[in-house]
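DATA SHEET
Item: assembly model
Revision: 1
Owner: S.N.
Input lines:
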Amino acid sequence: MAQESTKEKILKMAKEIILDKGVNHFTLEEVAKQAGISKGGLLYHFNSKEALIKGMLQHYMNDVAVEMGISQETTDKMRVERVLLESIRQMGHNPCEYEKNSAGLLAAIVMNRELIEPLKEYHHNMSTWIAACDDSTLAHILFFALAGIRLSTMMGLNDFDNEAQEQLLSRMAQMARDINHQDTEA
Amino acid sequence: MAQESTKEKILKMAKEIILDKGVNHFTLEEVAKQAGISKGGLLYHFNSKEALIKGMLQHYMNDVAVEMGISQETTDKMRVERVLLESIRQMGHNPCEYEKNSAGLLAAIVMNRELIEPLKEYHHNMSTWIAACDDSTLAHILFFALAGIRLSTMMGLNDFDNEAQEQLLSRMAQMARDINHQDTEA
DNA sequence: TGAACTATACCGGCTGGACGGTACATTTTC
DNA sequence: GAAAATGTACCGTCCAGCCGGTATAGTTCA
């Protein structure tokens, strides 16, 4: 853990700068300064700005994968429901961390759109899984609503208070639980 | 109209560059080149890059306001329903134009986050209106789903085909029509 | 009516600063 | 003392904004 701490700190500070000050302040010098090292030191760990962004995206992807239990194998039908529910739970549980992680996405889009290819793949996979569940249209709506909350927040457009957000998320969770239980009602 | 064409063309080209090539290619020189004038000529119409971005945002805000019929006064309750439905209809009707208009948003966030203040105000107003309708939680979910579709598309993360998107939007429209008719069912 | 003047639209070279990246020196760690 | 980690100094490029022009259409006035 200790030998990784500088690298971790660099990533953390990069995210903070992007979210607190804006992407235009995301420069190698600024990140190095905030991380308490020099630019040369930073470039030792990430040998280009692109590498730094890739590092942030990797962080994001890992977190998403772990949190959602992507690695666990279940039936395709239940997978969507579980992933949506887990995503909703995480957003309610730790909104700050969630927001921070999307900083890499913003940086990637600004620097070089090709960097988001892995994320595109993730979205594509979700779409494919979603198509398999009973009420795939509803699942898609929930999926986009989650994306909307996450991206709006990232852009500073979302001024929801916690209470309202919680209410929103619990309703979404309720809807998510319905996407594979249509048959029991109809 | 003719005396405005250069300014209009500049705005149009700026949006196209951002969406086609990425924000990193959005430079005054590139915009000028695409618009068929020189950088000096461009700066005659928009005397700074910030002014150009403000112009794009203004365009966006105007379009949104007109399309949604914000100016028409109805009861608060119906307003949300109407705005959501109109928004959904527009997205299905002219997705390309919808996408193009959000280019300004992306540029603004990169350049100077303060530029999106007017948009924040719009979002805030929406939230206030939404709180007034019968099923405000559902209305919020739809609102965020719309944002999610729009922003995902803008970032190139959305690889939906037209058919799926239409199905999605019609379901959303159906849900939107329900937000003020809960009382007739319960 | 035509000469002097003004406004509008646009051009293109220039500059100064910001920033990514390199090369190498220096310190720390084991 | 060697490898890892960090610092320092510098280079080259990119780009926003500035500025001195040009061209042309419209206006004023004698």
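QC remark: Residues 18 and 26 of chain A are 6 Å apart (CA to CA).
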